[in-house]
Design a protein that fits this description.
heterodimer, A: 439 residues, 434 Repressor (Amino-terminal Domain), Beta-Lactamase, 6-stranded mixed β-sheet, 18 helices, 6 strands, extended, B: 123 residues, alpha/beta, 5 strands, 45% helix, 20% strand, Helix-turn-helix domain-containing protein (chain A), transcription (chain A), Cro/C1-type_HTH (chain A), DNA-binding (chain A), ScfR_C (chain A)
Chain lengths: 439, 123
């Protein structure tokens, strides 16, 4: 939506609000009524001097007629309209809505954003309810304790002639089970509280590592030069890395990042990005290194370097041959499953079929408001070659957000996991979606 | 009148104790097993009049116990009341397909259990 298109609607809205006739306003600013009519219907651009004159005649500032925040309103309202099952023949009149009822448009856009946010929560909770062994065990423990307490309390209450030894026994049982219940409830509340703080309930060493890296904004400048001993000492003091398993994983990750840093120093990467942009194959050729090293390095760009080259935050996913995700760097608009494998259509998995062959694909996340990404993926043998053992492959995928209208027509629609994917007709589907009715 | 025998397969001792008490008070003879595998051999050797079967059991879950019971002639028609902390429709459907007689979610009311058993085997 262009700024001028919005401006015309706003001019009309302001004019009608003030009860000024189109002819009168046209005369006041020195244009013909028909020309003003075209402007108001967003069919002509408004020159800066004319905009100033219109603003003065309408008693508002020029800025009020070209406010950028309206673009966000339009996008929000349009998004809300597109996800509705209702056929909206007058969708193109969204400018009218924004211009005449900005408050209602904001409510619509905010509600849509809220619905989208809640859908993400539902996806996460569904994922957790289905796969989280801790939650399943905790709930089972609590229900068992409640069952015992309820049944035993009913016996004590209903049976007035209960023998004293049975009374003692049942009182002891209630005491034990109420203790279990209290402990279970506290543990569950703590667990859910973690989810509320955005950590989605850290349960595995991998998640501890991911939480630690997220807190560090995926940028650890010291690893460029530090020794691994120093890295180990640093990790020992990280509160996010509570388990020794997570510290081991983090140390392995730091070793990998250090190797990547040696292969692709930031100073040289700065120059290469200026030359090639985010084109991983050219960068790999420039540095004479493996493509996956470039993908990892790009996903961990220092903020100043990213900003200098206009590189937005990028996503990164790494999996092993089983499809299990070993690493997930989130990127806005692309969801990874918390448990199990992701969408079988991801280039990450396609790469496993053709080791060492770089893949590039345009993706759109399934659903009406799909986000577009360019995915670069490659799989590579991990570890030394062994004569009598199958090669161990590891695939890496970098996700680069695309501009909204990139013009790329060959786009593959992908989901996060089947359970939360709204794309119902999909040959790769392995289980029904909880979003069966679509957006 | 011959006492009806009820076998309870439940790994939570306080729950099985409460069930034993309730059923005994209502005139049934109650035996308890905490393990599905051990209970199967007992069931095959000497089938009771009805079975109360927990779903979440160590080693062999309630579905597997039920599947085995329905495959054996002596227990094919044994009335089974399944108790579970998992009340999802998928579990209920699976239990029905495997031939459960009644399905009840925890926590339950004592009177409900007694009533269900009376329906299944008589007073």
């Amino acid at each position: 939506m262009s700024r001028s298109a919005l401006t015309g609607t706003r001019i009309r809205a302001r004019r009608t609000l003030r009860g000024i006739r189109q002819t009168d306003l046209a005369r006041e600013v020195g244009v013909s009524p028909s020309y003003l009519n075209l402007i108001e219907h967003n069919r002509r651009k408004v020159s800066a001097p004319l905009l100033g004159a219109l603003a003065q005649a309408l008693g508002v500032s020029s800025d009020a007629l070209v406010e950028d925040s309206d673009a966000r309103l339009v996008e929000g309202a349009r998004a809300a309209a597109l996800r509705s099952d209702t056929e909206l023949g007058d969708l193109e009149r969204i400018d009218d809505l924004i211009g005449r009822f900005p408050g209602w448009a904001k409510v619509l856009a905010d509600t849509h954003a809220r619905v989208e946010g809640l859908e993400r929560v539902v996806e996460q909770l569904s994922d957790r309810m289905t796969h989280d062994p801790y939650l399943a065990d905790a709930l089972h423990e609590i229900i068992s304790a409640v069952t015992s307490v309820q049944s035993t309390a009913a016996i004590l209450n209903d049976d007035e002639a209960l023998a004293p030894e049975w009374q003692d026994r049942f009182h002891r049982n209630i005491l034990t089970d109420s203790g279990r219940l209290a402990e279970g409830a506290v543990a569950l509340v703590n667990y859910i509280d973690n989810a509320k703080t955005g950590e989605t309930g850290i349960a595995s060493p991998q998640e501890e590592v991911e939480a630690w890296l997220a807190r560090e904004m995926y940028h650890l400048p010291f690893i460029e030069t530090a020794s691994m001993d120093a890295a180990e000492a640093y990790l020992a003091g990280q509160v996010d890395l509570a388990s020794s398993a997570s510290r081991q994983l983090a140390l392995a990750w730091l070793a990998q990042m250090q190797a990547d840093a040696r292969a692709i120093p930031h100073a040289a990467l700065d120059a290469a990005l200026g030359l090639h942009g985010v084109t991983p194959d050219l960068l790999a050729a420039e540095f004479g290194c493996d493509l996956d090293a470039v993908l990892r390095r790009l996903a961990h760009l220092p903020p100043d370097l990213a900003e200098a080259h206009g590189v937005p935050p990028l996503g990164l996913a790494i999996c092993d041959m089983s499809g299990t995700l070993l690493f997930r760097r989130p990127v806005e608009g692309f969801a990874y499953p918390r448990f199990g494998g992701g969408c079988p259509l991801w280039p990450l998995y396609q790469a496993l079929r053709q080791p060492h062959v770089p893949l590039r694909a345009s993706l759109v996340t399934a659903g009406r408001m799909g986000r577009r990404f360019t995915a670069f993926a490659v799989a590579r043998v991990s570890g030394p070659a062994r004569m009598d053992l199958p090669p161990v492959l590891r695939a890496t995928m970098l996700l680069v957000p695309q501009a909204e209208h990139s013009g790329d027509s060959a786009v593959l629609a992908v989901g996060a996991s089947c359970r939360t994917c709204p794309q119902l007709e999909c040959d790769a589907r392995r289980e029904p979606s909880i979003l069966a009715t679509g957006g | 009148m011959v006492q009806k025998r009820i076998l309870v397969i439940e790994d939570e001792p306080n729950i099985s104790e409460a069930i034993r008490f309730i059923l005994t008070r209502n005139g049934w003879q109650v035996e308890v097993e905490a393990d599905g595998l051990a209970a199967l051999s007992r069931l095959r050797a000497d089938p009771p009049d009805a079975l109360i079967l927990d779903l979440m059991l160590p080693d062999m879950d309630g579905f597997e116990v039920l599947r085995n019971l329905r495959a054996d002639a002596p227990t094919r028609d044994l009335p089974v009341l399944m108790l579970t902390a998992k009340g999802q429709s998928a579990d209920r459907d699976l239990a029905a397909r495997l031939g459960v007689t009644r399905f009840m979610t925890k926590p339950f009311a004592n009177a409900e259990v007694v009533s269900a058993l009376q329906d299944m085997v008589g007073p």
